[in-house]
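Quick one, probably user error.
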């Protein structure tokens, strides 16, 4: 028997319908999905901020790398630019002084001091020592130059990798946010459907239908 307490209405059904109607009206099943969306936004900001310094450094390295390669297009000018600041090293000067003194002493002992042969020998010593010193100077600068280019290239690679990582992170986040948005809208529709269904039940209970 319906428990109507003399009202002619099933109060239990009426109460249940009213509770369902209130839940549909004031409940929000989409709230968890909005929280997921907010969480994804926060994670996206933190994630992309970690890539930004490397991406920026890579972008800054591009014109520097282009300038570096342009300087080497003409091999002769490139060599001249490297050797323009050459000066005899202290070691080469010491070696030349020592060699020439030894040559002069040997020529003096043999009676060849001041002869054409002695002069040619000293010139050969000086040219050989200077050539080795200049070659060492060039090798040092050329190595530094290559290291500089390698560093710029690595910096661009890291920037490219950071840009790709940020793009992947953004793409995954957008996909997750789209799913959360879809679920959020579906939850809203379910709430509306529940509210309408509970409202109908409440009306039927109210009027004893």
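Nope, works fine. Designed sequence:
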């Amino acid at each position: 028997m319906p428990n109507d307490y003399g009202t002619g209405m099933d109060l239990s059904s009426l109460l249940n319908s009213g509770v369902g109607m209130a839940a549909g009206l004031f409940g929000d099943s989409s709230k968890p999905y909005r929280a997921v969306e907010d969480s994804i936004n926060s994670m996206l900001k933190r994630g992309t901020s970690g890539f930004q310094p490397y991406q920026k450094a890579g972008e800054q390295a591009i014109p520097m790398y282009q300038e570096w390669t342009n300087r080497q297009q003409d091999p002769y000018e490139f060599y001249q630019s490297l050797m323009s600041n050459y000066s005899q090293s202290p070691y080469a000067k010491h070696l030349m002084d020592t060699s020439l003194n030894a040559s002069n002493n040997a020529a003096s002992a043999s009676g060849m001091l001041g002869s054409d042969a002695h002069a040619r020998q000293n010139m050969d010593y000086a040219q050989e020592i200077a050539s080795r010193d200049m070659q060492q100077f060039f090798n040092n600068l050329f190595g530094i130059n290559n290291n500089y280019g390698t560093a710029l290239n690595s910096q661009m690679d890291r920037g490219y990798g950071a840009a790709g990582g940020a793009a992947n992170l953004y793409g995954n986040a957008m996909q997750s946010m789209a799913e959360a948005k879809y679920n959020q809208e579906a939850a809203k529709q379910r709430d509306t459907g529940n509210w309408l269904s509970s409202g109908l039940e409440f009306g039927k209970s109210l009027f004893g239908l």
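Helices lie at 11-26, 31-70, 75-83, 90-110, 116-207.
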